[in-house]
Each structure stands twice: as structure tokens, then as C-alpha cells.
Amino acid sequence: MPIRVKSRVPQGDGAHRTPSPRGRIVRTIDAELPDIADDDCFRVLVKKLSVYIADVVELPVTFEQLRTTSAGDGLRVLVDHLGRNCTHPAIVNALLALKWHYGATTEDKGLNDARANACEIVAWRFLTHLSEREVVDYCLYEIPDPKDAEEGVTPTDEEAAAVPDERTSLLGRARSVFTPSPSSGSDKRNLLLRSISRLTMSMTSDDGDEEEDEDPTAHFTNLNALEIAAIANAKRFLSQAVVQKIITGIWNGDIIFWDSLSVHSVKKPRFYKPATADPFSRLRVPKYLKSFEVLFFVSFLFLYYAVLMERDPTRFTTLEVFLSLWLAAFAYDELSEWIDAGSVFYATDVWNIFDMFMIGIGFTYFIMRIVGLETHNSYLVELSFDILALEALFMVPRVFSILSLSPYWGTLIPCLKEMGKDFVKFMVLVVVIYFGFLTTFSLVGRDSYTFNDMTGFLTRIFFGSSAVGFDIMNNIDPVFGPPLMVLFIILSSILLTGSLTGMLSNSFSRVITHAREEYLYVYSVYVLEASTSNRLTHFYPPFNLLALVIFRPLRLVMPSDTNFRRARILLLKATHLPIVAAIEFYEWLRGTAGKGTQYNGFRGPRYTTIASPNPAARKQRHQQHHHLQPKSSSTNLTPGAASSGGEGGIGIVGHGESTTRATPYERYSQAFGDPSAEMEDRIAELSAKIDRLTELVVALQALQGQKPSDCGDA
């Protein structure tokens, strides 16, 4: 259905303009609102949205322009259309997947960045049309496998008939589409980006041709909206209050993915109910996972210092045996996490880079240590201890990585990360200039200084010892030495150093400007990474070595049947009973073990179940709201229609129609139940102010000789 949005258009806007009868500029957007059916597959859903986004965003505008000016009129109309008519459960997933695609596209960067911002704006504005419980449903909805849809397999059928394999990942058995897995995170990222690119580039192709091709969205199977947002760097989306409430709920265990530890348990998001949940399910709560991780790293650090202090060059000591066990358990746990989360999502956490360096240095140490002892090579033995000393560069910061959950440290870490990236890029230029001068000085002064001596001199000059250059410039060459050295000192001490300082300052300012978003992004990735394991029996290190030694050989000769899973569960309960007891004691002290609301503070109507939006129920809710909402035409919209909805896009008004609106009190009550007395007073006061403001606007229009129904053209 084509839409027409009338609004004041700033000079320079490339939209079509026609003068209105009152002399105003009319901006016409010829775009077809996507007709999204509840049974559309993810592939079709993404394609429909991409067509509309490409039609309404045709200029490289900024995020703020899309959010606050007439450039975002088409987005407001889309948000209102989706909020009123769309009940597809994967709508948020599709918008964030498109944001990822447009943001990563290198061609026409300005326009694609604008479209990426548009997708993110629509995604989080769409959430404003939902209650908190419905937001949970949409954010935790995982994209189903298209093969299951074709075969008529529903989640209920799967839960009743299938038993998850211990080798499957958190994101479901459909992640097997990644196998054999790409060797690097960039490879898998390219797979996903090509998937969306094939959709957006084939917008005009025939459906029959598309059906013959491989489904380009297959690589998104079983990803939920929060995971896609983390990979796509949708920081504004993740920083929304209701989204952060979900993240915090997962962190604290108010939203869990496993409610029992039994053979037939099925992973799905649900609200935690202390009265019915298995105490061993608390082992999967990210808060407790990270707390135990800190304790593990503290013990790891203690063994590390003990081995370096002991430093026995003649034999492999008991402390080194324990250190090797801790390193092996840590490496196996990281490998399991990488397999479960996938290389793309695993690479989003900067601390995992530290983990890889720790594992590499640790194994290098043990290999050289064993070889040196076997060959009685004292040099290799001493070198192995020196290599182990490098471990502290990564282990000590890793122990204190929990500080990234603090707003202060969580903001500094992204700043340092961006400054490091810019520093590496800038050093390429420095190295090029450095080698040019090094070559010249080495050849001109070959009779006075060796190549190694000249390398040392120029390095000291670059790091601030300019006096060294003035001392040796005549010795290099009486004619060329002084001018070349003065030029090098000016470049290194003034131009390059000043440019580097200014660039790093700009990098810091760029990140610190969005400090809250950066911190919440780090926090969200931290939480989501801790909850991305689909293994029913997740062993904490170093207990995971027991499972590796006992069950890995058995898996080679026997299938992973019910008895095999039962044995793993028994071993987990036997080894982790003290940890579960400590968790239960902690929750008892906090007073949260035996209490908790049914939905753990997530408000809203009970039309849906968590992570399973019910289209029929949502339509029922919209029907209940319909008599309080204005019936507007989506084909002719006034400026008030495009802007009166604010961030949510609510309140589109048709030409010449008298409208009735639900009061703020009615909207609040319908969405969240009866408010408190204090909230009632505030809502009543706000409603009175709105009424007075409306009367003032009508009075001003009457003075100007306008009819009230024309207020949309103002």
C-alpha cells in the first residue's frame, strides 16, 4: 500500500517535493508497506523488510536525523504498521540481521550506515508497542530451522520426541549447519553476511528462482535477537531499558534456559520458579558461572606464582602437575565455549583473546619444559621458565576481568580497545617513515656506525631522546647528516608524536561520548556469552577433566543414549554438590531462594509464553486496544501522524477524522495492571497537562483561522 507523508522538508532533502495548497512543502514517499504474514519464513521476512527500508532511506542521513527529523517519517509509519498488524515472532531478529548486513557493507558506506541505523531504530521502537513480557518473547525467540517448518515439526513435537545431544550447542541442533565449522570467526561472519547480501541483492528476482537456490538465511538458524544484536554491534538497541532488564534477568537467573537436570530436559527460555526448579539448574546462571570463574582464575594464579617461585630445573614438581591440570581444564573449557557459542559470537568478547594467549603460552612452556628435561638441555629449561613468566601479562588482567561489569571499567575497556586499533594503524605509517630514514642514515654513515648502532640511535630519538640525534649528526656525514637528522627529529618528536596523541584523544572521546552504550554492550556480551551453552551437563573446570577422561573414550564406542546422559548427570551432581549448596546458601541469605513473583518483575498481559509469541493472542490484545486507538488511514498521513507517536510511532491520525485516545492511565493499566497510588497521581497530572496543551493548540489554531482537523498540516 503506497503511503504519503506530508511534512516540512529541510533544504537539500532529495525527496520529491510538491507545493501544498497552503504553501508548505509536501514530501511524498512512494513505498509499499510490507505485508508480513505470521507463517512467512525468515527468508521472506528479511526480504520484505529490506525492500521497504531501501525505498524509504535513500540518502546518507545520520542516526539523529532519522530519529528526530522528517527523514525518519517512513520509519515511524513502518513502526506503527508493525505494532498494529505484525505478529511475526522473528520480526526483531530480521531487523537486527538487516542492521548487521547494512553496517558491514563497504560499498556506498554513508547510505548503508543510514539504512543500518534505520533498522536498529525500527527494532527498538517496535518494542515500545509491547509489554515487558512480550519483549522477552521477541528478544529470546530463536529462528527455527526451515527444514523443520517444511516437515511440519513444531517445537512442542521436538520437545516431546527428541532428546538433545550432549554435543549440541546452546543455539540448538540447527547450528549443525555450520559444520564443518569455519576455521576462524571472520570466515563464519562472512558466511552470515553473504546470507543477508544474497537476499538484498535478489530483491527483484523471481520466487521460482529463489526456491532453487540454497536458503541464504540457513546460517541464522537458532540465533535469537539478542545474539544478533551483539554480533551486529547494535549498541543502542542493547542499551534500551527493557532489553537491559532481560539481560539482567538472565544474569541474575530470573530467566533460565534449563529448569531441571534430567535425561529428558529441554533447553528453552523460561521464568525461574524456585518452588519447581531443580537446584542444580542454578549452575547455569551466568552470575554464578562468572563467580566460580573468578575463583578458578585466582587458584590458577596462585599455582602460577608458586611454580615460578619454586623454579626447580631438575624435575617436574607436584605444583607443576597441578598447574598443567589447571591449564588443561581451562583450555578444554574454552574449546567447549568456542564450539557452543560459535566463533563469531565468541570473538565479540575481548577477554577471549587473552584466554587464547594464555593457552598458547602455557602449552609452549610445558612442551619446552618436557623437552628440556628429557634432553638434559639446561638452556631450554631456563627458556621455558622465561616463557612462563610472559603468562602474567594476560593472566593478571584476566583475573580482574570481572571489573568490566563495573560501569567505570566497563567504559574504559572499549576505549582502550579502540585506541589500540587506531594505534596499530598509525604505527604502519611510523614504521614506513622510520625504515626510510634508517636506510638513508645507515648508508650515509656506514663508515662511522653499524646498522645495529643506527637502529638504536633512531629508536631512542623517536621515543624522545632528541639530543642523541644532534650529537651524532655530524659524525654521520658533515653535509647530509645535520639537515636529515633535524628533519627526522621534527617528524618524530613534533609531527608524528603530536598526530598520534591527537588521534588517540579523538578515539577516546568518540567512545566515551557513548559511555553508557559501550558499557552496556560489554555487559550484554559478557552475560550472553555465559548463557550460550546448550550442553545439559556443563562441568565447571577442573571437574570437566573428569568428564573428558571418563566419557570421551566411551563416546567413541557407544552412542550418546539415555543411560550415557544419566551417567553424566550423576557425575555432575556428585562433583558439584558443594557448589550448589553454596549457591543455595547464598540465595537463602539474600532471601530469594523461596520467594519470587511468577514472572520475576516482568510486567504485561499474559497473552504469550516466553520466547514463543502467540499471534492469535497478540491480535486479541490489539482488538482490545482498538477502540481506544484512532482508526487511521495508512495511505494519507499528516505531519502529526508522522510525529505524534514519538519514539514508538503511536498515534497516527487520518485527514479530517475525529479521534479518541486512551489516557495514559488506561494505557498503563492495560499493559501493566493497576499502578500504585503515587503513579496514579503522576499519570493524572500528566494527563491534565496534555489536555491543557491541547486546548492551547486549538485556541492558537482558531486565532489563525484554521480548523481543528487541519492541525496535522501545521
TrEMBL record:
Residues 618-629 have a biased composition (Basic residues). Residues 676-703 form a coiled coil. Residues 297-587 form the Calcium channel YVC1-like C-terminal transmembrane domain. Residues 1-22, 604-665 are annotated as: Disordered. It comes from Humicola insolens (Soft-rot fungus). It comes from the Eukaryota. PANTHER family: ION TRANSPORT DOMAIN-CONTAINING PROTEIN, NONSELECTIVE CATION CHANNEL PROTEIN. The chain crosses the membrane at residues 288-307, 344-367, 387-411, 423-445, 485-504. This is Calcium channel YVC1-like C-terminal transmembrane domain-containing protein. Keywords: Coiled coil, Membrane, Transmembrane, Transmembrane helix. Residues 643-654 have a biased composition (Gly residues).
